[in-house]
Amino acid sequence: MISFAPDTGVWLLATPHTSYALRVDETGAPCHLAWGPRLTLAEAEELAVPRPASTSSFEGRSPVGEELPVDGGTRYGPPSLQVRFADGSRAFEWQPTGHRVDEGELELAFRDRLYPLHVALHYRVRGDTDVIERWTVVRNAGEEPVTLLRADSAAWTLPPLRDYRLSHVTGQWSAESQLRRGRLPYGETVLTSRRGITSHHANPWVMLDSGEATEEHGRVWSAALAWSGSWRITAQRTPDGRAGLTAGVGHDGTNVPLSPGEEFTSPPLMGLCSDGGFGAASRAWHSYTLGHVLPHPDELAPVLYNSWEATGFDVDEVGQKALAERAAELGVELYVVDDGWFGARRSDRAGLGDWTPAPDRFPEGLAPLVETVHRLGMSFGLWVEPEMVNPDSELYRRHPDWVLHFTDRPRSELRNQLVLNFARRDVADWAYDWLTRLVGDHGIDFLKWDMNRAFSEAGWPDRQDGADRLGPQYVRNLYDVVDRLRADHPALRIESCSGGGGRVDLGILSRTDQAWASDNTDAADRMWIQHGYGQVYPARTMGSWVTDVPNQLTGRTVPLRFRFHVAMAGALGIGGDLTRWSEEELREGAALVAQYKKVRPLVQHGRLDRLSPPCDDAVSVVQYTAADASETLLLAHRRLTRHGAPDLPIRLRGLTPSARYREARTGAVHHAGVLGEYGFHLDLPPGDWSSTAVHLVRESE
């Protein structure tokens, strides 16, 4: 998987379908050679022949093409590593000091030629994925402090192409994961979060192609950062026809202090080169996430019920038991009590931080409710927001210094709350202590871990360098609390939530089981949100609810069947007020839950094909297929009916050639060749907001 040519200094990393080649050049700098189709070592060496240097004295080194561009010499592109030493000097000069190869991992070690600063570039390849993992370790081996003005995880270089297109997502609260595709402009394009969290407004992944890739065809290069705090990705396109990107923690204006003997390890930045268009790229990311990121990838996410939209803050034992009875009858497997169960929490103005059951609402604590839920055959889950505090709380009155703040500056409130400083070990330990007691004492099976506001006044007055240390240390302590909690309670499962989809990334998914994609549960809007989410993250991780109409956020009314079919594209949940559902709605809902359970393995572990993207007046179709192609599921949705619009057949993908597939509902049999080459007519019900789920099972020989 990793080979080396000593004569030319070329390293070659091989994945199942791609190669990645680099070398250390004559100046000691690690330089990129190739990233694409498979190469032999001899072929990679041919690429190491130096290109003629630019004849212009205005150019310097190419802004792309190094494995970790540094600030120094005649480099004028965005640096991945930018250093300020104690004497005020800047720049970094590469001096190789060795390498290490160990079971698919390559480490290239360097130091600065003058200062005792060490840098190690790490690469990892695996035998079952084309995703390459990269990260960087920077160590201060001297006796003076060093400041990392920028410390990215890695830089990726694309081959010269005639054009470049950038794909990414943008959004905001309740409108996350809106897919954007457009020509990569010349110069630098920066995607970032300055909010202390992954953010609703962007997500730390990008895809690049020549502008010719489609859902099914073309080569796509992509990268994703495994980090749950502020981050920055800079993609650049140079006038000489090159493109690349660099990514890492923090945003503009943030520093990472390194004391003597201290080291900084960046989060992994994963890269993928894939053929087969955007669909193949997505499937490769899904497979990687299921195989190497999620803690329990083989499990099936349960059908859950969440009480929030039914009750708001009006939570008590009697009402929750009544909802639990209805949920169990519907076929729900996990019952989750949302906000409002603790302290003086009667609105969002008070109570955050006081994590004990409200005695007027739960006179005997949570135990009777938990016992009822378990008796009904469901697991029990609870909403928590450990990183937040209301100023109107006992916790804040005891520890006003525990929040992010600057001395003598205002403490800006959003949602009437402040952010606890998880970078402080005492705050993180406090959160771990009450969480592990809460879970252990009550037999809680599931936590919905929320985080409902961005950072502001992100200071740490107790530390001289606190404002600079806060960002990375906050995230690392957050990860540590979750890791310790799960070690204490191996059966505990956790959902990541941040006001909806504000904290979705490969870092948080490596220690949680699913994510709440958006607070917007309107099925019509969710089609676009889920389309963007699934570009990188698998359906197994995507919490999707069926809620009441008119929708609380949009006021839109769509049929129950349509709402279910949209939510069935992920980890199905229900969030309506079941005490108000009619008997007909309960029967229809129970039937759709039962249908979902039959096809759930396909959705959560199968191959995703986006046969037709979301649109206003045409049919949107996603297909999920078993790994062995033994069965497949179509989920189809039509928002609006346009008179005279053609009824086009849908061509399926990934079926066994020459096999026959039987529709589970109607018994009709179809040849795979016809389904794939000539298409399948969906037979949608007439009218607006129509939908269907078609389950096809391969017949035995």
UniProtKB/TrEMBL annotation:
Domain Glycosyl hydrolase family 36 C-terminal residue range list: 620-696
The record's region (Disordered) falls at 51-76
Q: Which SUPFAM superfamilies match?
A: (Trans)glycosidases
Q: Where is the Glycosyl hydrolase family 36 N-terminal domain?
A: 28-258
Q: What InterPro entries does this protein's entry cite?
A: Aldolase_TIM, Alpga-gal_N_sf, Alpha-glycosidase_related, GH, Glyco_hydro_27/36_CS, Glyco_hydro_36, Glyco_hydro_36_C, Glyco_hydro_36_N
Q: Does the keyword Hydrolase apply?
A: yes
Q: Where does this protein hold substrate?
A: 173, 338-339, 415, 448-452, 497, 519
- UniProt xrefs under CDD domains: GH36 (cd14791)
What Gene3D superfamilies does the record tag this protein with? Aldolase class I, alpha-galactosidase from lactobacil brevis, Golgi alpha-mannosidase II
Q: Where is the active site?
A: 450 (nucleophile), 519 (proton donor)
Q: Which UniProt keywords apply?
A: Glycosidase, Hydrolase
Signal peptide from the UniProt entry? none
Q: Which reaction does it catalyse?
A: Hydrolysis of terminal, non-reducing alpha-D-galactose residues in alpha-D-galactosides, including galactose oligosaccharides, galactomannans and galactolipids
What Enzyme Commission number(s) apply to this enzyme? Answer: 3.2.1.22
Do you know which PANTHER family this protein is assigned to?
A: ALPHA-GALACTOSIDASE C-RELATED, GLYCOSIDASE FAMILY 31
Q: Which family does it belong to?
A: Belongs to the glycosyl hydrolase.
Name used for this protein in its record: Alpha-galactosidase
Its organism's taxonomic lineage begins at: Bacteria, Bacillati, Actinomycetota, Actinomycetes, Kitasatosporales
Gene name in the database record: galA
